[in-house]
Amino acid sequence: MAEKIPAPNGKPEHTATLCSSFYLYETSEEEVVRLIGNLSEGKAINENYIPTKIIKLAKYVVTPILTRIFNKCIMKVSILIV
Questions:
Q1: Residues 67, 29 contacting (CB under 8 angstroms)
Q2: Residue 1 in this model has a pLDDT that exceeds 90
Q3: Region at 49 (left for phi over 0; alpha for psi -120 to 50; beta for the rest)
Q4: Among 1, 25, 41, 62, which has the highest number of CB atoms less than 10 A from its own CB?
């Protein structure tokens, strides 16, 4: 089967655009609500012993707080990287 794969001629296309940096974008409350809504309730309880079902039920209460925490962390990491 390996004989049927054509040999590359030169540098593969997908490596031409690789770079050694990345950027973290701030998140929005809408994204956090969506991600909380997608959490699986069948998974183990987290290290704080808060069941996923409770987090999902309280998502509109915790979302503004979590969004602010996430964005502050992203900003701090961005400052440290630059």
A1: yes
A2: no
A3: left
A4: 62
Rounded CA separation 22/78 (Å): 10
pTM: 0.64
Amino acid identity, position 62: V
- Domain coordinates of the chain in residue numbers? 27-82
Per-residue pLDDT tens over the stretch 62-81: 999 999 999 999 888 766 66
Give the Cα separation of 27 and 66 in Å (integer). 10
What's the CA gap between 52 and 37, in Å, rounded? 10
Q: Which of these, 10, 70, 80, 66, lies nearest to 33 by C-alpha position?
A: 66
Q: What is the pLDDT of residue 76?
A: 84
